Amino acid sequence: MAGSGASRPADRAVVVGIDGSRHCVDAAVWAAREADRRGLRLRLIEVVEWQDGVAGHPEAVRAAAQVRSELRSTARCDVDRAAAQVFGRLAAAAVSAEVCDGVPVEVLGDMSDAAELLVIGRPVGGWAGTLLGVALAGRAACPLVFVNQVPDTGPDDPVVVGVDGSPDSDAALEIALREAHARDVYLRVLHAWSDVPLDTEHGTTVEFGRFAAGVRESLHDRVAQHTRRHPDVEVRYGTTRDHPERALRELSAEAQLVVIGARGRSGGLELGQVGRLLVTTARCPVMVVGPGMRARSSEWAPSDVRVAD
């Protein structure tokens, strides 16, 4: 099934942030498949971070102009190389390779306002490499997708969503149902309920059997608020006493896509701890739904879920 069944503005596109890394090329290839499946344009964007108005000696001005020219030349090579990798996957007219000046999070964030998806490669370079992703998770007005590698998944592999009861998680669940419907696959809903330790060195302090039953019942009740609007999607539930990142990473090995909320229950940074870990370890693309996406989640008229345990 192509598309989600809801109408979209004609200028909607899948936007890919390019930085010259191998991961961004994988992101471009995955994004090309998505753009083709959704009938959308593909925009490959590299942002050259530059501030105008260099003051000082004329030689400094000339040197700055040369550096800027070289940076733009390198960026042009990067986006053209990414475009070459997607050649043949989309009509040439549906792909644009662009170099922009500005601050990456601001430029890409602004583009997300009219985008269907914003796609970037796996963060590299430790904490510093995750800063763009963290900032975009809070700014993006569309789902933000991190691509570690182009997944080798089958057409029947599911969409997986992590649910924890937070507002971002509820928005992620709505988007995940839409993604499962568009792919004509089932949705695996996972709640990993032991992301905080409930044991002590003196022994177990909680009756876990009774606790787990309550968790499963609460999960079904919460998800039912969304699934009744999506009867065409089969939903399979899972709960586990495990850390969310580890549980979702294991499921990602046989999934087309993992969908999570940006911040979860803990609040704090725009991309929470689970998200920061998962975007570097998942075996399939990870779609992050942040606060900027909540308002837009109501734009799509959801299809309505047969339920299976």
Question: What characteristics describe this protein?
Answer:
309 residues; Rossmann fold; 2 domains; two-stranded antiparallel sheet; 41% helix; disordered N terminus
Mind sketching the topology for me?
Layout: E1 13-17, H1 22-38, E2 41-48, H2 58-86, E3 95-101, H3 104-112, E4 115-121, H4 126-139, E5 144-147, E6 159-162, H5 167-183, E7 187-192, E8 199-200, E9 203-204, H6 208-227, E10 235-240, H7 244-252, E11 257-261, H8 273-281, E12 286-289, H9 291-294, E13 307-308
Parallel strand pairs: 1-2, 1-4, 2-3, 4-5, 6-7, 6-11, 7-10, 10-13, 11-12
Antiparallel strand pairs: 5-12, 8-9
Question: Describe it for me?
Answer:
The longest helix is centred in the N-terminal third of the chain and has 29 residues, at 58-86. This protein folds into two domains: 10-121, 3-Layer(aba) Sandwich (Rossmann fold), CATH 3.40.50.12370; 152-309, Rossmann fold, CATH 3.40.50.12370. Residues 1-7 and 300-309 have low confidence and may be disordered. It is elongated. Helix 5 links the parallel strand 6 and strand 7. Helix content is 41%, strand content 20%. The strands form two sheets. The chain has an eleven-stranded mixed β-sheet, sandwiched between helices. With 309 residues, the protein is an alpha/beta fold. The protein has nine helices and 13 strands. The chain has helices at 22-38, 58-86, 104-112, 126-139, 167-183, 208-227, 244-252, 273-281, 291-294; strands at 13-17, 41-48, 95-101, 115-121, 144-147, 159-162, 187-192, 199-200, 203-204, 235-240, 257-261, 286-289, 307-308.
